[in-house]
Description:
Elements: H1 28-41, H2 49-56, H3 64-79, E1 95-102, E2 113-120, E3 123-124
Antiparallel strand pairs: 1-2, 2-3
Amino acid sequence: MDGVKHVSSPMAISCKLSKIVDKPLSDSFVYRGIIGALQYLSFIRPDIAFSMNKVTQFMQAPTNEHWSAVKWILRYLKSTIQYNIFLFRHSSVHLTAYTDADWVGSIDDQKFISGYCVFLRINLIF
């Protein structure tokens, strides 16, 4: 991973993964192994959770496009290795929630994609 180009997001904005776009990956064992390792990392790095969700949907038949998305996540992790989660103590309880949805965002099944985050004061908890 030395000398790779740094990226500032866990997935490219224009990335729309599909199961029928590209040719199948020649060795899917490496793909599945890296995905398995990254799933554990997503517990302490919630910033990659959405990207991990997308690439794990194609573990049955990964393509070169999916492999490129996994490499993008690895490049993001390399460039953000110093990121940490800090929790700060506060005396009052103040919950704030944000949500977003992408209607018909999935190419394969035309379902919507949604996400949310919940803050306790300034601490991200979900």
